[in-house]
């Protein structure tokens, strides 16, 4: 028996629980820890039974609650090394200054003033001098006096495990194959989970459907597939031009049209359930995504056994069990 529970799906947060009868993993933690716990409770899932968290990529809608949840449950987090690094960079403040550095900085400032005086004497403009960033004494003291909890590393995790796209690994009795997806993150991945003769795949956040993704998700019994936007709604919608370009790009998100094209042309048709996910709230309507996928499947009679479900942003989807 395997189970997939989509806790949330969309640009405001993603998280999906995948379980065999012995092992439970959470894919992404893109809501606050509190909200993830609340949704697991609603869906009848026990957070304390989770074995690990897997991360597809470092965008905030996939990692917002990650550190807090992992520390609370004391479970390992699986990333690619590049994704982990990108995530740590994201959480690390860009400028921090120790007391020693601050003393250095004071010295530099003194020297700069002396140099400026020399320059002014020689008639050159003070703007020729390089600018030294202004850091007040209060800033330094605030950090020095901060309680240990504030100073604590925000990216600290109970344990970090690295995987490589294209190389499968096991957590408990679930065999996991990560595959590369085309998306504008450090090293984004989708996953195929296999246990007890059942395969479940997650492929969201991808600009198009490359051959390696089609190949990876073939033979899935449950397929969580992106159907992000309706092309016309995106074009006429509220996003600024640059964001529209990003979404439409080869490293953006899959449109209803692209998903339908995959379903009607390349999909092998074996899934009991196709779950459409990562629907945009501004540039899509659930009914448009559903109709588009149903038409694509309807064009191929042998796919009619596939049930199409829509993952939601605001609430968990009922668990799919096979
Ligand atoms: Zn993303
Ligand atoms: Zn996303």
TrEMBL record:
A Pfam family of this chain? Lactamase_B_2
Q: Which residues form a coiled coil?
A: none
Cite the SUPFAM superfamilies for this sequence: Metallo-hydrolase/oxidoreductase (SSF56281)
Q: Which residues form the Metallo-beta-lactamase domain?
A: 12-278
Query: What is the designated name of this protein?
Result: Phosphoribosyl 1,2-cyclic phosphodiesterase
